């Protein structure tokens, strides 16, 4: 009977409060809740779900909640504003829907900023914050990307790409175009990928590409533009906020990929010093999508910290 209940639970999708908010749960609702906050803007949770990460994490004894923010992914909403306030409303909807008093927030990439600001505003709702390849000092990340690609193109004597870098550097640093330019350069140089993927990670990516989740990997190209139009906090350093959260007694954990090309060594050391050595993990042969690149190590570390 219990197994039947769990299987039913895995298949539920909610559209709540007229917001068309995609939410899917994994595991037993009586276990410790973890809410996964995906990257973006213009992201979704399909990779976290489609590589079985959500399901495998639930098997470690957690009630895992995956969702797509309003207007992103499977949560279609033409009236979405893509502000942090709106993202907070989505999270509060999840708390209300599942009668959660507290939950761990597991945040990836841009989701780290959403989760950090939410934890500052609603500390009573957060039992722990886990930063997984999460952004925390945006301008430092952009600077690191641009400095790194300039070195690559200078070595190659690629004047065309050096001109492109210069063009990006001259853009308004608080604009969607600047953000897009930086991350396009990072992607073109494989900053988000590991050079030597494991057989396990290659299989996870292949399985994902063949799954229904990949078919619903919806990207709203207008999301970043609307975010930068509507949200004033669009290029921030969240480390002072993280220190504030930590001072309130909320445990903060950080797990990053050693080969994640968008973060400098200085940045990684700073987040390690902030959370503390026992709350930090750096996974080798691992880049930005660490829950795929090194899934077993990722799951082991999360369970070790939270159980």
Automatic annotation (TrEMBL):
Gene3D superfamilies: alpha/beta hydrolase (3.40.50.1820). Residues 32-293 form the AB hydrolase-1 domain. It holds the Pfam family Abhydrolase_1. This is Alpha/beta hydrolase. GO terms for molecular function: hydrolase activity. InterPro entries: AB_hydrolase_1, AB_hydrolase_fold, AB_hydrolase_sf, Peptidase_S33. Belongs to the peptidase S33 family. Keywords: Hydrolase. Signal peptide: none annotated.
């Amino acid at each position: 009977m219990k197994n039947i209940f769990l299987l039913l639970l895995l298949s539920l999708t909610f559209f709540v409060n007229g917001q068309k908010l995609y939410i899917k749960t994994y595991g037993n609702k009586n276990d410790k809740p973890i809410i996964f906050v995906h990257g973006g803007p213009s992201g979704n949770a399909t990779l976290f779900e489609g590589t079985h990460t959500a399901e495998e994490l639930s098997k470690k004894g957690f009630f895992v909640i995956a969702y797509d923010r309003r207007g992103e992914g499977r949560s279609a909403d033409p009236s979405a504003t893509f502000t942090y306030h709106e993202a907070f409303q989505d999270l509060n909807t999840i708390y209300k829907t599942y009668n959660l008093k507290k939950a761990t927030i597991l945040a990836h990439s841009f989701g780290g900023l959403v989760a950090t600001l939410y934890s500052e505003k609603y500390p009573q709702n957060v039992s722990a914050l886990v930063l997984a390849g999460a952004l925390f000092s945006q301008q430092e990340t952009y600077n690191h990307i641009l400095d790194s690609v300039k070195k690559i193109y200078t070595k190659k004597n690629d004047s065309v790409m050096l001109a492109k870098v210069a063009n990006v550097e001259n853009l308004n640093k608080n604009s969607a175009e600047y953000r897009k330019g930086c991350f396009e350069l990072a992607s073109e140089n494989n900053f988000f990928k590991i050079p030597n993927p494991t057989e396990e990670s290659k299989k996870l990516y292949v399985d994902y590409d063949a799954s229904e989740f990949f078919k619903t990997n919806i990207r709203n190209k207008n999301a970043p533009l609307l975010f930068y139009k509507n949200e004033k906090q669009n290029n921030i350093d969240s480390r002072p906020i993280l220190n504030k959260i930590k001072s309130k007694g909320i445990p903060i954990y950080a797990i990053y990929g050693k080969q994640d090309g968008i973060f400098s060594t200085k940045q990684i050391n700073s987040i390690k010093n902030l959370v503390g050595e026992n709350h930090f993990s750096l996974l080798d042969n691992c880049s930005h999508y660490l829950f795929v690149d090194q899934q077993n190590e990722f799951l082991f570390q999360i369970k070790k910290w939270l159980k």
